[in-house]
């Protein structure tokens, strides 16, 4: 079994609250922009805004997650410095439909003109930045095997960015859901 067929890794309190706070502060001081799905803004498929995160905060997050990732996936996470981590803010409405995180050619092509970052890489790290009681709905779901999670602030959820790992975000019914998404490459140990 290769590392890419492993189940998602879930680690509570992987990120210290102080780092969650630094990320949240960054977001508060920057204008959020609507996020695309397959290169197009379509709120019936994905309703979230994003803010790009500076590389030093991205590296801090990766260093807190590295040991967990090594032991679960048996690979080392490698920062992709040219590619910004993003914080997503989801308000009430459609969350994010079921999808996979493998970058497609159509997304790459549309990114040449839509001003949006292409978020590629081998492994997706999702870190929850607010508490689950601050929003209704918004569960992160996986399809195979079926799993629905609503993690606490500072929890890491990591999974391979392949077509097999179909996932999405249930519609937010109240409040705001805030997550950080960092993509890393995998280095063999
Ligand atoms: O916000 C989340 O929990 C997941 C986001 C996601 O699936 C993605 O950016 O590809
Ligand atoms: Fe995704």
UniProtKB/TrEMBL annotation:
InterPro entries: Oxoglu/Fe-dep_dioxygenase_dom (IPR005123), Pro_4_hyd_alph (IPR006620), Pro_4_hyd_alph_FE2OG_OXY (IPR044862). GO terms for molecular function: dioxygenase activity; iron ion binding; L-ascorbic acid binding; oxidoreductase activity, acting on paired donors, with incorporation or reduction of molecular oxygen. Its cofactor is L-ascorbate. PROSITE patterns: FE2OG_OXY. It comes from the Bacteria. Pfam families: 2OG-FeII_Oxy_3. Residues 81-186 form the Fe2OG dioxygenase domain. This is Fe2OG dioxygenase domain-containing protein.
């Amino acid at each position: 079994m290769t590392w890419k067929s492993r189940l998602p890794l879930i680690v509570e309190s992987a990120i210290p609250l102080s780092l969650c706070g630094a990320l949240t502060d960054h977001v508060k001081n920057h204008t959020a922009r609507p996020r695309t799905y397959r290169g197009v803004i379509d709120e019936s498929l994905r309703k979230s805004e994003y803010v790009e995160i500076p590389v030093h905060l991205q590296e801090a997050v990766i260093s807190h997650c590295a040991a967990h990732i090594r032991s679960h996936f048996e690979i080392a996470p490698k920062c992709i410095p040219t590619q910004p981590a993003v914080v997503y803010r989801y308000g009430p409405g459609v969350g994010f439909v079921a999808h996979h995180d493998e970058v497609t050619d159509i997304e790459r092509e549309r990114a040449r003109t839509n001003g949006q970052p292409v978020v590629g890489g081998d492994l997706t790290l999702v870190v929850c930045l607010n508490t689950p009681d601050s929003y209704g709905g918004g569960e992160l779901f996986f399809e195979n095997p079926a799993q629905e999670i609503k993690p606490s602030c500072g929890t890491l959820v990591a999974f391979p960015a392949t077509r097999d790992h179909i996932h999405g975000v249930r519609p937010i019914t109240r409040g705001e859901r805030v997550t950080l998404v960092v993509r890393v490459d995998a280095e063999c140990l």
